[in-house]
Amino acid sequence: MTVFVLLAMMPAEPRKLLNEMLPNDTRAWKTWKDTVLDKIEKNQELRFSENHWNIAGFRDDETSLLKTLYGDAEDAYEGHLGHRASRSDDIEKGV
């Protein structure tokens, strides 16, 4: 949900909002936040692959968490794209 909010609001300070909504500051969470914010700030698609969560030196639990977080971020991105598309359709129809 947090990623959807960031994409919908496009706040002036996305890192501040992200840290307020998700104050977790473990190594895995910091890695995820940095990657997601970098993609949002560069207006890139939120698509992730194994190289995003299989990081040398990370424990299995951290890798598993990252894989889950990136999957959730992709789901939020897809939801946001669907929301934007439906809003565009509504605007075209004058709703």
Give the arrangement of secondary structure elements.
Blueprint: H1 2-9, H2 14-21, H3 27-41, H4 50-53, H5 60-93
Q: What is the total number of structural domains? A: 1
Tell me, rounded to a whole number, the average pLDDT: 92
Helix count equals 5
N-to-C terminal Cα separation, in Å?
Answer: 26 Å
Net shape: globular
- Percentage of helical residues? over 70%
- Indicate the proportion of strand residues: under 5%
Structural class label: mainly alpha
Tell me the total number of β-strands: 0
Using only C-alpha atoms, the radius of gyration works out to 15 Å
The ordered string of helix (H) and strand (E) elements is: HHHHH
User: Would you identify the regions where 5 or more consecutive residues have pLDDT less than 50?
Assistant: none
Describe the structure.
- The chain is mainly alpha-helical and 95 residues long.
- The chain has one domain (2-11, 24-93).
- The chain contains five helices and no strands.
- The longest helix has 34 residues, at 60-93.
- The chain is globular.
- The protein starts with a helix and ends with a helix.
Describe this structure in a few short sentences.
By secondary structure, the protein is an all-alpha fold. The protein has five helices and no strands. The protein is 73% helix and 0% strand.
Structural descriptors:
95 residues; mainly alpha; 73% helix
